[in-house]
Amino acid sequence: MQNQDIIQLLSHHRVPGRLHLPQALTCYQLLGLLRATVPPSALANALSPSRLDQALHNLEAQGEVLLGVGKRVCMAQPTVYTSDEESVTGIQFLGDRAYLRLAHQALQTGQPVTQTLLRPKNKRLEWIQTQLGASNIGCHTPDQLVSQLPTPQLPANWQLREQHRSDNPFFTYQGFESILGYRPEPGRQCDRWQPIIGLEHLGSIASLRLLKTPEGEFLWFQDGQFFGITPDTAYLAMFELDLQINQPLQIALDEKPGLLDLRDTFFPKAYAQLIWRLSKPSPDHNRIRYVDAQNQPRVKAALERLGCVLV
User: 27 with 68: CB under 8 angstroms?
Assistant: First the structure.
């Protein structure tokens, strides 16, 4: 399974009657479409639900897709990123590929319209942002991304109002793997997700409000009710829960080589996208990142904004 297969399928699905918007698909629907288009030789190892889930989280970190409530996914809004504010020689296009041709036209690149590394005719950032803005395509620099990062927070009532679940997940998943609850305590982020035996266990531990089903859907438990929430909302809540009971997540950053190991750590999408923009993947794993000395202050500022402690 290639990331480009996922991007191509999601970009081709549009909201009926509103073709300027990408249509959200469930992970189950996307998996079915991939199985219908990917060569049979690739099916055995590449198209499992767990591999798809991993690929989608990596694509969200890169800024390509958005993950929503109920294991839904769609293309992110079209955006270009540049690291140089003075003279822009090349900018990376990410998100909804339905706008890629339009980006080439707006920037007068003269390149093949399938290329995602754009070389605008005019190198001034202000001109580039104006041209792209007229086509509803965003353009951001790393410093702009840092200043726009959301702060950790619990789900707001308006986010929950329309996402009430009528079913009880402990009955729905009876006989399956236990539902997990997020409990901030020392250790890795992945170890803070612990099995909940049932409603009695949930009720006895007031801090267990953030839940995850065996299918990877995030839930919020409040006032005796269950609400579906997006992964992004869940990750912001994770870090807020850490702060509330003074259990910040410790992240190792080896400054000399700039090595940042994020294999067991997930961030809100704005943070993940910023870190991915400012780092390069290790040959061994996409979530082991190398951050050069120039970008380390920005990455540190972002992690500290989440309450993380660098060690």
Answer: no
Q: Sort strands 18-22 and 14-15 into parallel, antiparallel or unpaired.
A: antiparallel
HEC-encoded secondary structure of 26-41: EHHHHHHHHHHHCCHH
Quote the CA–CA distance of 250 and 164 in Å, as a whole number. Answer: 33
**Is pLDDT of 1 > 90?**
no
What's the chain's average pLDDT? 86
Is residue 53 within 8 Å of residue 65, measured between CB atoms?
A: no
pLDDT value of position 295: 87
Measured CA to CA in angstroms, residue 145 lies from 138, 150, 153, 169, 182 at distances of 12, 10, 18, 37, 28
| Band of residue 200 on the pLDDT scale cut at 50, 70, 90 | low
| CA–CA dist 193, 188 (Å, integer) | 10
Cα separation of the two ends of the chain: 36
List Cβ neighbours of 206 (8 Å cut-off, separation of 6 or more).
none
| Cβ-Cβ contacts under 8 Å for 302 (sequence gap 6 or more) | 146, 149, 271, 274, 275
Helix ranges, 191-279 (H)? 199-204, 231-244, 269-277
Average pLDDT for 233-249: 94
Q: What global pTM score does this model have?
A: 0.77
> Does 159 score more than 70 pLDDT?
yes
Residue 142 has a pLDDT of: 81
Please give the C-alpha separations between residue 303 and each of 97, 250, 266, in angstroms, as whole numbers: 30, 10, 12
Residue from 96, 95, 23, 27 nearest 62 by CA: 95
Give dist(CA 252, CA 41) in Å, integer: 39
Question: Strand order of the sheet with strand 91-94?
Answer: 117-118, 91-94, 79-81, 138-140
User: pLDDT class for 241, splitting at 50, 70, 90?
Assistant: very high
Joined tokens for residue 1: 């399974």
